[in-house]
């Protein structure tokens, strides 16, 4: 076997010395405070069973898609799913991708053109950054959730012709590493006033916010004011894949120019059937109950943080993602290990995934977590932060 080049070995060694070496480990058999399965859909037996029933009903009993959607992989379940997404999210069209990463890379590498400008929140997801890097537009970041900083950097007039640059403003409705949200109404008003294109990643809002879990955009009534929304199915919906929501022309463009769509094997019929049944479950009384339990757990967690005097350590958030800042990779790793040793799966987030000095414990809350679990977990955190661990 050919050995790894020395320069690559050196980079691995540097990671180890910084306590930031990534390893693949088996799932921990602990109380879940780390997964994105906010509503418990990933292990829901009803969704699992109904997915197979739908496959039989549609005559789509196939193990794989057999090719990309532009070749042999565009099985009939895709049309059903995309029509479901159009109705549920109140948009003109929806285009399903094989993953959230594929959706963001495909969108941002193909939509902004040479001469255009992309302004993105400094904490935007890595997949969006990668897509922007692959494209030909110039890009600039603005301070996190800071509309005034965006305004100071985005001094362009409303485009009047095909030759003038298009401006794309990119943010998330719920940020994956902070759990906070921008003032989407003010961002939307600014973009409308200036003729800019607002793009919002709703990965961590779908299923959690809005009527029936339609997301933050729906909750604020901004559906018709957004150029594009990227939604994913691997978080609250408990399955896999993603979609770009927007106009019919946007869908046509992506089908023709988004390379991560064109050259990727399509999702299997089973994957698509699971997404469809997850949406059916989301609209059912069981889905409503799960969302209600999650909302109550978020409120209870925040109340307990306040009671334990930990407010100053936590990033303000009304989402299922609650983060406790513990600077330093060694410190956050040590505290996480102590919490895990008591039976709770809470993961540390190291730099450079987050900025140096902003290392944190990331608590992901779920509909299935109990108040007893939440209280006990925060008691253990408080105990260890006081140096008694």
UniProtKB/TrEMBL annotation:
Domain (Aminotransferase class I/classII large): residue spans on this chain: 29-379
Cofactors required: pyridoxal 5'-phosphate
Any one GO biological process: biotin biosynthetic process
PROSITE patterns recorded: AA_TRANSFER_CLASS_2
Keywords recorded for this protein, A-Z: Aminotransferase, Pyridoxal phosphate, Transferase
Pathway of action: Lipid metabolism
Transferase keyword on record: yes
GO molecular function, one term: transaminase activity
Record PANTHER family: 8-AMINO-7-OXONONANOATE SYNTHASE (PTHR13693:SF77), CLASS II AMINOTRANSFERASE/8-AMINO-7-OXONONANOATE SYNTHASE (PTHR13693)
Record-stated family: Belongs to the class-II pyridoxal-phosphate-dependent aminotransferase family. BioF subfamily.
Protein name: Pyridoxal phosphate-dependent aminotransferase family protein
Organismal lineage: Bacteria, Pseudomonadati, Bacteroidota, Flavobacteriia, Flavobacteriales
């Amino acid at each position: 076997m050919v050995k790894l080049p020395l320069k690559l070995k050196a980079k691995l060694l540097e990671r180890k010395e910084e306590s930031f070496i990534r390893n693949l480990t088996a799932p921990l058999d602990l109380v879940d405070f780390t997964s994105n399965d906010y509503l418990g859909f990933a292990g829901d037996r009803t969704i699992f069973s109904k997915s197979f029933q739908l496959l039989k009903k549609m005559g789509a009993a196939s193990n794989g898609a057999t090719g990309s959607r532009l070749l042999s992989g565009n099985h009939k379940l895709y049309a059903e799913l995309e029509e479901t997404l159009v109705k549920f999210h109140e948009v003109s069209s929806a285009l399903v991708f094989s993953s959230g990463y594929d959706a963001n890379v495909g969108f941002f590498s193909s939509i902004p053109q040479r001469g255009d400008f992309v302004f993105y929140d400094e904490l935007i997801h890595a997949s969006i950054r990668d897509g922007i890097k692959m494209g030909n537009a110039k890009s600039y970041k603005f301070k996190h959730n800071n509309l005034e900083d965006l305004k100071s950097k985005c001094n362009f007039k409303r485009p009047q012709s095909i030759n003038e640059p298009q401006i794309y403003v990119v943010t998330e409705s719920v940020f994956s590493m902070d759990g906070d949200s921008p003032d989407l109404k003010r961002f939307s008003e600014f973009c409308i006033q200036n003729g800019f294109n607002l793009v919002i990643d709703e990965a961590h809002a779908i299923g959690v916010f809005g009527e029936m879990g339609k997301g933050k955009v729906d909750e604020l009534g901004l559906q018709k004011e957004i150029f594009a929304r990227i939604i994913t199915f691997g978080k609250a919906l408990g399955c896999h894949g993603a979609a770009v929501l927007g106009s019919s022309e946007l869908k046509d463009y992506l089908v023709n120019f988004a390379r991560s769509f064109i050259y990727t094997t399509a999702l299997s019929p089973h994957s698509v059937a699971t997404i469809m049944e997850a949406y059916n479950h989301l609209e059912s009384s069981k889905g409503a109950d799960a969302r209600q339990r999650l909302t109550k757990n978020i409120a209870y967690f925040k109340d307990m943080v306040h009671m334990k005097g930990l407010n100053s350590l936590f990033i303000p958030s009304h989402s299922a993602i609650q983060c406790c800042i513990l600077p330093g990779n060694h410190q956050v790793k040590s505290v996480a290990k102590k919490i895990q040793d008591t039976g709770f799966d809470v993961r540390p987030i190291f730099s450079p995934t987050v900025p140096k000095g902003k290392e944190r414990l990331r608590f992901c809350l779920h509909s299935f977590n109990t108040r007893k679990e939440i209280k006990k977990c925060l008691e253990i955190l408080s105990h260890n932060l006081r140096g008694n661990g």
